[in-house]
Protein backbone atom coordinates (compact mmCIF):
# COMPACT_ATOMS: atom_id res chain seq x y z
CA UNK A 1 0.00 0.00 0.00
CA UNK A 2 3.02 2.28 -0.07
CA UNK A 3 2.88 2.49 -3.87
CA UNK A 4 1.46 5.80 -5.17
CA UNK A 5 -1.81 5.61 -7.06
CA UNK A 6 -1.54 6.12 -10.80
CA UNK A 7 -4.22 7.88 -12.78
CA UNK A 8 -4.90 6.00 -16.01
CA UNK A 9 -6.83 7.24 -19.01
CA UNK A 10 -9.48 5.27 -20.90
CA UNK A 11 -6.94 4.29 -23.59
CA UNK A 12 -4.61 2.71 -21.03
CA UNK A 13 -1.85 5.33 -20.96
CA UNK A 14 -0.54 6.21 -17.52
CA UNK A 15 -0.96 9.97 -17.31
CA UNK A 16 -0.09 11.08 -13.81
CA UNK A 17 1.04 9.68 -10.48
CA UNK A 18 -1.22 10.72 -7.62
CA UNK A 19 -1.66 9.69 -4.06
CA UNK A 20 -4.09 12.27 -2.78
CA UNK A 21 -6.91 14.39 -4.16
CA UNK A 22 -8.87 17.30 -2.72
CA UNK A 23 -11.05 15.35 -0.29
CA UNK A 24 -8.44 15.42 2.47
CA UNK A 25 -9.19 12.21 4.36
CA UNK A 26 -6.52 10.55 6.49
CA UNK A 27 -6.78 7.37 4.44
CA UNK A 28 -5.21 6.87 1.06
CA UNK A 29 -7.77 7.75 -1.59
CA UNK A 30 -8.02 5.91 -4.85
CA UNK A 31 -9.96 8.09 -7.26
CA UNK A 32 -11.46 6.95 -10.53
CA UNK A 33 -13.03 9.40 -12.93
CA UNK A 34 -15.78 8.45 -15.34
CA UNK A 35 -14.92 10.36 -18.54
CA UNK A 36 -17.08 10.73 -21.60
CA UNK A 37 -16.28 11.64 -25.18
CA UNK A 38 -19.53 13.13 -26.44
CA UNK A 39 -18.76 13.21 -30.14
CA UNK A 40 -18.80 9.42 -30.45
CA UNK A 41 -22.58 9.25 -29.98
CA UNK A 42 -23.47 12.37 -31.95
CA UNK A 43 -23.75 10.62 -35.31
CA UNK A 44 -26.68 8.55 -34.01
CA UNK A 45 -28.30 10.34 -31.09
CA UNK A 46 -27.41 13.99 -31.74
CA UNK A 47 -28.21 16.19 -28.71
CA UNK A 48 -30.16 13.34 -27.06
CA UNK A 49 -26.84 11.58 -26.62
CA UNK A 50 -25.95 13.85 -23.69
CA UNK A 51 -28.92 12.52 -21.73
CA UNK A 52 -27.79 8.97 -22.42
CA UNK A 53 -24.21 9.74 -21.39
CA UNK A 54 -25.20 11.45 -18.16
CA UNK A 55 -27.51 8.54 -17.33
CA UNK A 56 -24.71 6.10 -18.16
CA UNK A 57 -22.58 7.97 -15.64
CA UNK A 58 -25.10 6.99 -12.95
CA UNK A 59 -25.16 3.41 -14.26
CA UNK A 60 -21.39 3.11 -14.00
CA UNK A 61 -21.33 4.74 -10.56
CA UNK A 62 -23.90 2.19 -9.34
CA UNK A 63 -21.87 -0.64 -10.85
CA UNK A 64 -18.62 0.58 -9.30
CA UNK A 65 -20.13 1.00 -5.82
CA UNK A 66 -21.78 -2.43 -6.04
CA UNK A 67 -18.53 -4.12 -7.07
CA UNK A 68 -16.76 -2.34 -4.22
CA UNK A 69 -19.40 -3.65 -1.81
CA UNK A 70 -18.88 -7.16 -3.14
CA UNK A 71 -15.13 -6.81 -2.57
CA UNK A 72 -15.63 -5.46 0.94
CA UNK A 73 -14.29 -2.01 0.09
CA UNK A 74 -15.63 1.32 1.32
CA UNK A 75 -16.43 3.47 -1.70
CA UNK A 76 -18.09 6.82 -2.24
CA UNK A 77 -19.27 8.64 -5.35
CA UNK A 78 -18.61 12.31 -6.02
CA UNK A 79 -20.65 14.13 -8.63
CA UNK A 80 -19.80 17.52 -7.14
CA UNK A 81 -16.18 18.41 -7.83
CA UNK A 82 -14.15 21.20 -9.39
CA UNK A 83 -14.41 20.18 -13.02
CA UNK A 84 -11.60 22.25 -14.43
CA UNK A 85 -9.06 21.07 -11.84
CA UNK A 86 -9.94 17.41 -12.37
CA UNK A 87 -9.99 17.70 -16.17
CA UNK A 88 -6.61 19.43 -16.08
CA UNK A 89 -5.24 16.68 -13.84
CA UNK A 90 -6.35 14.05 -16.37
CA UNK A 91 -5.18 16.03 -19.37
CA UNK A 92 -8.70 16.27 -20.81
CA UNK A 93 -10.11 18.96 -23.07
CA UNK A 94 -13.63 19.61 -21.71
CA UNK A 95 -14.99 20.70 -25.09
CA UNK A 96 -14.22 17.19 -26.38
CA UNK A 97 -14.41 14.89 -23.33
CA UNK A 98 -14.64 15.47 -19.61
CA UNK A 99 -14.78 13.80 -16.21
CA UNK A 100 -18.38 13.23 -15.12
CA UNK A 101 -17.99 11.47 -11.76
CA UNK A 102 -15.36 10.35 -9.26
CA UNK A 103 -15.24 7.24 -7.10
CA UNK A 104 -13.05 7.26 -3.99
CA UNK A 105 -11.96 4.13 -2.15
CA UNK A 106 -10.80 4.41 1.46
CA UNK A 107 -7.71 2.28 1.82
CA UNK A 108 -5.59 1.57 4.90
CA UNK A 109 -4.63 4.84 6.58
CA UNK A 110 -1.59 3.13 8.10
CA UNK A 111 0.00 3.03 4.66
CA UNK A 112 0.03 6.82 4.48
CA UNK A 113 3.32 7.18 6.31
CA UNK A 114 5.03 4.53 4.21
CA UNK A 115 4.02 6.25 1.01
CA UNK A 116 5.99 9.40 1.69
CA UNK A 117 4.86 13.04 1.67
CA UNK A 118 1.64 13.90 -0.18
CA UNK A 119 1.90 14.94 -3.79
CA UNK A 120 0.38 18.37 -4.40
CA UNK A 121 -2.12 19.14 -7.12
CA UNK A 122 0.18 21.80 -8.57
CA UNK A 123 3.08 19.37 -8.96
CA UNK A 124 0.84 16.82 -10.66
CA UNK A 125 -0.52 19.29 -13.21
CA UNK A 126 3.01 20.32 -14.12
CA UNK A 127 3.90 16.78 -15.15
CA UNK A 128 3.68 16.14 -18.93
CA UNK A 129 0.79 14.08 -20.21
CA UNK A 130 1.58 11.41 -22.83
CA UNK A 131 -0.20 11.75 -26.14
CA UNK A 132 -3.47 9.81 -26.31
CA UNK A 133 -3.87 6.91 -28.72
CA UNK A 134 -6.35 8.93 -30.77
CA UNK A 135 -7.65 12.48 -30.81
CA UNK A 136 -11.13 13.41 -29.62
CA UNK A 137 -12.29 16.53 -31.50
CA UNK A 138 -14.43 19.22 -29.86
CA UNK A 139 -18.21 18.93 -30.19
CA UNK A 140 -19.26 22.57 -30.41
CA UNK A 141 -19.68 22.49 -34.18
CA UNK A 142 -21.90 19.41 -34.16
CA UNK A 143 -23.63 19.55 -30.78
CA UNK A 144 -23.94 23.22 -29.79
CA UNK A 145 -26.66 22.62 -27.18
CA UNK A 146 -24.73 19.80 -25.50
CA UNK A 147 -21.53 21.87 -25.51
CA UNK A 148 -23.27 24.89 -24.00
CA UNK A 149 -25.11 22.83 -21.36
CA UNK A 150 -21.98 21.01 -20.24
CA UNK A 151 -19.94 24.20 -20.12
CA UNK A 152 -22.62 25.93 -18.04
CA UNK A 153 -22.71 22.98 -15.64
CA UNK A 154 -18.96 22.98 -14.93
CA UNK A 155 -19.18 24.33 -11.42
CA UNK A 156 -18.90 23.01 -7.89
CA UNK A 157 -21.96 24.98 -6.75
CA UNK A 158 -23.95 22.96 -4.25
CA UNK A 159 -27.27 23.49 -2.57
CA UNK A 160 -30.01 21.55 -0.83
CA UNK A 161 -31.63 18.85 -2.90
CA UNK A 162 -35.21 19.70 -3.87
CA UNK A 163 -36.14 16.08 -3.27
CA UNK A 164 -37.96 13.65 -5.56
CA UNK A 165 -41.09 15.07 -7.23
CA UNK A 166 -44.45 14.10 -5.78
CA UNK A 167 -47.51 13.06 -7.71
CA UNK A 168 -49.86 16.07 -7.52
CA UNK A 169 -52.97 13.92 -7.80
CA UNK A 170 -54.63 12.21 -4.84
CA UNK A 171 -53.45 8.65 -4.52
CA UNK A 172 -55.66 5.60 -4.67
CA UNK A 173 -55.32 2.42 -2.70
CA UNK A 174 -52.03 1.69 -1.00
CA UNK A 175 -50.30 -1.69 -1.25
CA UNK A 176 -47.91 -2.60 1.54
CA UNK A 177 -44.92 -4.44 0.10
CA UNK A 178 -43.06 -7.24 1.85
CA UNK A 179 -39.54 -6.55 3.08
CA UNK A 180 -37.32 -8.69 0.91
CA UNK A 181 -33.58 -8.25 1.51
CA UNK A 182 -31.88 -8.17 -1.87
CA UNK A 183 -28.15 -7.58 -2.30
CA UNK A 184 -27.52 -6.04 -5.74
CA UNK A 185 -23.95 -7.37 -5.64
CA UNK A 186 -25.39 -10.87 -5.96
CA UNK A 187 -26.68 -9.93 -9.43
CA UNK A 188 -23.38 -8.79 -10.93
CA UNK A 189 -22.62 -12.10 -12.65
CA UNK A 190 -26.10 -12.42 -14.18
CA UNK A 191 -26.90 -8.81 -15.11
CA UNK A 192 -27.50 -8.49 -18.85
CA UNK A 193 -30.36 -7.66 -21.19
CA UNK A 194 -32.42 -10.58 -22.54
CA UNK A 195 -31.47 -11.03 -26.21
CA UNK A 196 -34.86 -12.49 -27.15
CA UNK A 197 -37.16 -10.35 -25.04
CA UNK A 198 -39.52 -11.49 -22.29
CA UNK A 199 -41.94 -14.38 -21.85
CA UNK A 200 -45.60 -13.49 -21.15
CA UNK A 201 -45.20 -14.83 -17.61
CA UNK A 202 -46.05 -13.16 -14.34
CA UNK A 203 -43.43 -12.28 -11.75
CA UNK A 204 -43.84 -12.40 -7.98
CA UNK A 205 -44.55 -9.46 -5.70
CA UNK A 206 -41.55 -10.31 -3.51
CA UNK A 207 -38.79 -9.82 -6.12
CA UNK A 208 -40.46 -6.61 -7.34
CA UNK A 209 -40.55 -5.33 -3.77
CA UNK A 210 -36.86 -6.09 -3.29
CA UNK A 211 -36.01 -4.45 -6.60
CA UNK A 212 -37.92 -1.27 -5.72
CA UNK A 213 -36.26 -1.00 -2.32
CA UNK A 214 -32.80 -1.40 -3.85
CA UNK A 215 -33.56 1.20 -6.53
CA UNK A 216 -34.97 3.86 -4.21
CA UNK A 217 -31.84 4.60 -2.19
CA UNK A 218 -30.55 7.48 -4.30
CA UNK A 219 -26.95 7.90 -5.39
CA UNK A 220 -24.56 8.34 -2.43
CA UNK A 221 -22.55 11.53 -2.76
CA UNK A 222 -25.13 13.21 -4.98
CA UNK A 223 -28.74 14.37 -4.86
CA UNK A 224 -31.73 12.05 -4.60
CA UNK A 225 -33.73 13.63 -7.38
CA UNK A 226 -35.99 10.97 -8.84
CA UNK A 227 -39.26 9.41 -7.77
CA UNK A 228 -39.98 5.84 -8.82
CA UNK A 229 -43.17 4.91 -10.62
CA UNK A 230 -44.12 1.41 -11.64
CA UNK A 231 -46.30 -0.08 -14.34
CA UNK A 232 -47.55 -3.49 -13.24
CA UNK A 233 -48.87 -5.67 -16.05
CA UNK A 234 -48.30 -9.20 -14.73
CA UNK A 235 -47.32 -9.16 -11.07
CA UNK A 236 -48.80 -11.70 -8.66
CA UNK A 237 -50.84 -9.96 -5.96
CA UNK A 238 -50.85 -6.55 -7.68
CA UNK A 239 -53.64 -5.47 -10.01
CA UNK A 240 -52.57 -4.20 -13.42
CA UNK A 241 -52.10 -0.45 -13.24
CA UNK A 242 -49.77 2.45 -12.59
CA UNK A 243 -48.27 3.05 -9.15
CA UNK A 244 -45.96 5.41 -7.30
CA UNK A 245 -43.37 3.87 -4.96
CA UNK A 246 -42.87 5.38 -1.48
CA UNK A 247 -39.39 4.33 -0.26
CA UNK A 248 -40.00 5.62 3.27
CA UNK A 249 -43.10 3.47 3.79
CA UNK A 250 -42.15 0.77 1.27
CA UNK A 251 -45.57 0.93 -0.36
CA UNK A 252 -47.09 1.31 -3.81
CA UNK A 253 -49.82 3.92 -4.23
CA UNK A 254 -52.17 3.43 -7.14
CA UNK A 255 -52.37 6.46 -9.41
CA UNK A 256 -54.88 5.08 -11.86
CA UNK A 257 -55.51 2.26 -14.24
CA UNK A 258 -53.88 1.75 -17.60
CA UNK A 259 -54.85 4.85 -19.60
CA UNK A 260 -55.48 4.88 -23.34
CA UNK A 261 -52.05 6.42 -23.89
CA UNK A 262 -50.38 3.70 -21.86
CA UNK A 263 -52.38 1.04 -23.68
CA UNK A 264 -51.00 2.36 -26.95
CA UNK A 265 -47.43 2.27 -25.62
CA UNK A 266 -47.86 -1.23 -24.20
CA UNK A 267 -49.36 -2.58 -27.41
CA UNK A 268 -46.75 -1.41 -29.90
CA UNK A 269 -43.41 -1.16 -28.09
CA UNK A 270 -41.03 -3.44 -26.18
CA UNK A 271 -42.53 -1.97 -23.00
CA UNK A 272 -45.56 -4.21 -23.49
CA UNK A 273 -43.52 -7.41 -23.24
CA UNK A 274 -42.37 -6.68 -19.71
CA UNK A 275 -44.22 -7.98 -16.66
CA UNK A 276 -43.44 -4.71 -14.88
CA UNK A 277 -41.73 -1.44 -15.76
CA UNK A 278 -39.76 0.79 -13.39
CA UNK A 279 -40.06 4.48 -14.36
CA UNK A 280 -37.68 7.04 -12.82
CA UNK A 281 -39.47 10.39 -12.80
CA UNK A 282 -37.73 13.73 -12.29
CA UNK A 283 -38.26 17.46 -12.65
CA UNK A 284 -35.82 18.91 -15.22
CA UNK A 285 -36.28 22.39 -13.72
CA UNK A 286 -36.75 21.47 -10.06
CA UNK A 287 -33.13 21.85 -9.00
CA UNK A 288 -31.99 24.65 -11.27
CA UNK A 289 -32.13 27.26 -8.53
CA UNK A 290 -29.76 25.57 -6.05
CA UNK A 291 -27.55 23.76 -8.58
CA UNK A 292 -27.61 25.79 -11.76
CA UNK A 293 -27.08 24.04 -15.09
CA UNK A 294 -25.26 21.21 -13.33
CA UNK A 295 -28.71 20.04 -12.19
CA UNK A 296 -29.20 18.30 -15.53
CA UNK A 297 -26.16 16.10 -14.97
CA UNK A 298 -27.10 15.33 -11.37
CA UNK A 299 -30.70 14.45 -12.23
CA UNK A 300 -29.83 12.17 -15.13
CA UNK A 301 -27.06 10.45 -13.17
CA UNK A 302 -29.55 9.73 -10.39
CA UNK A 303 -31.83 8.16 -13.00
CA UNK A 304 -29.02 5.91 -14.25
CA UNK A 305 -28.11 4.96 -10.69
CA UNK A 306 -31.69 3.84 -9.95
CA UNK A 307 -31.89 1.88 -13.20
CA UNK A 308 -28.67 -0.05 -12.61
CA UNK A 309 -29.43 -0.77 -8.96
CA UNK A 310 -32.81 -2.12 -10.06
CA UNK A 311 -31.25 -4.20 -12.82
CA UNK A 312 -28.70 -5.75 -10.46
CA UNK A 313 -31.37 -6.46 -7.84
CA UNK A 314 -33.59 -8.06 -10.48
CA UNK A 315 -30.72 -10.27 -11.63
CA UNK A 316 -30.10 -11.30 -8.03
CA UNK A 317 -33.75 -12.43 -7.92
CA UNK A 318 -33.46 -14.41 -11.16
CA UNK A 319 -35.25 -11.87 -13.36
CA UNK A 320 -34.10 -10.15 -16.53
CA UNK A 321 -34.17 -6.42 -17.28
CA UNK A 322 -33.58 -4.04 -20.13
CA UNK A 323 -32.99 -0.27 -19.93
CA UNK A 324 -35.29 1.40 -22.45
CA UNK A 325 -35.01 5.07 -23.44
CA UNK A 326 -37.89 5.34 -25.90
CA UNK A 327 -41.48 6.55 -25.50
CA UNK A 328 -40.59 8.80 -22.53
CA UNK A 329 -43.05 11.47 -23.70
CA UNK A 330 -45.89 9.00 -24.15
CA UNK A 331 -45.21 7.44 -20.75
CA UNK A 332 -45.18 10.88 -19.14
CA UNK A 333 -48.53 11.72 -20.70
CA UNK A 334 -49.94 8.32 -19.81
CA UNK A 335 -49.11 8.86 -16.14
CA UNK A 336 -50.88 12.23 -16.18
CA UNK A 337 -47.66 14.21 -15.66
CA UNK A 338 -47.11 17.58 -17.30
CA UNK A 339 -43.41 17.29 -18.14
CA UNK A 340 -42.22 18.85 -14.88
CA UNK A 341 -41.86 16.16 -13.61
CA UNK A 342 -41.45 13.74 -16.49
CA UNK A 343 -40.52 10.12 -17.15
CA UNK A 344 -36.79 10.09 -17.97
CA UNK A 345 -36.17 6.42 -18.76
CA UNK A 346 -37.56 2.94 -18.12
CA UNK A 347 -36.38 -0.41 -16.80
CA UNK A 348 -38.26 -3.32 -18.34
CA UNK A 349 -38.57 -6.29 -15.96
CA UNK A 350 -39.67 -9.85 -16.66
CA UNK A 351 -38.85 -13.47 -17.32
CA UNK A 352 -36.41 -13.85 -20.24
CA UNK A 353 -37.35 -15.94 -23.26
CA UNK A 354 -34.01 -17.74 -23.05
CA UNK A 355 -31.23 -18.11 -20.53
CA UNK A 356 -29.34 -14.84 -20.58
CA UNK A 357 -26.12 -14.64 -18.62
CA UNK A 358 -22.67 -13.33 -19.44
CA UNK A 359 -21.52 -16.90 -20.10
CA UNK A 360 -24.46 -17.57 -22.42
CA UNK A 361 -23.68 -14.49 -24.47
CA UNK A 362 -19.98 -15.32 -24.69
CA UNK A 363 -20.64 -18.87 -25.94
CA UNK A 364 -23.97 -18.23 -27.71
CA UNK A 365 -25.73 -20.93 -25.73
CA UNK A 366 -29.49 -21.17 -25.27
Notes on the protein architecture:
The structure is a single chain. By secondary structure, the protein is of the alpha+beta class. The protein folds into two domains: 5-152, no CATH class; 174-360, NADH Oxidase. The protein is built from twelve helices and 13 strands. The chain has helices at residues 42-45, 48-70, 83-90, 111-114, 121-126, 144-152, 205-215, 260-268, 288-291, 294-316, 328-334, 358-363, and strands spanning 5-8, 14-18, 29-37, 74-78, 97-106, 174-176, 227-232, 241-246, 251-256, 276-282, 320-324, 342-343, 346-350. The strands form three sheets. Strands 6, 7, 8, 9, 10, 11, 12 and 13 form an eight-stranded antiparallel sheet that branches. The N and C termini lie far apart (44 Å).
Question: CATH topology of the largest domain, what is it called?
Answer: NADH Oxidase
- Kindly estimate the percentage of residues that lie in beta strands according to DSSP: 15-25%
Q: In sequence order, what are the helices and strands, one letter per element?
A: EEEHHEHEHHHEHEEEHEHHEHEEH
The CATH first-level class of the largest domain comes to Alpha Beta
Shape: globular
Low-confidence spans: pLDDT under 50, at least 5 residues? 1-33
Radius of gyration: 21 Å
Any guess at the CATH architecture of the largest domain?
3-Layer(aba) Sandwich
The helix fraction, in percent, is 25-40%
Our measurement of the CA-to-CA distance between the termini, rounded to an integer number of angstroms, reads 44 Å
Number of strands: 13
Write the CATH homologous superfamily of the largest domain. Answer: NADH Oxidase
User: What is the average of the pLDDT values?
Assistant: 77
**How many individual helices?**
12
Please state the structural category: alpha+beta
Total domain modules: 2
Strand count, sense and closure of the main sheet? 8 strands, antiparallel
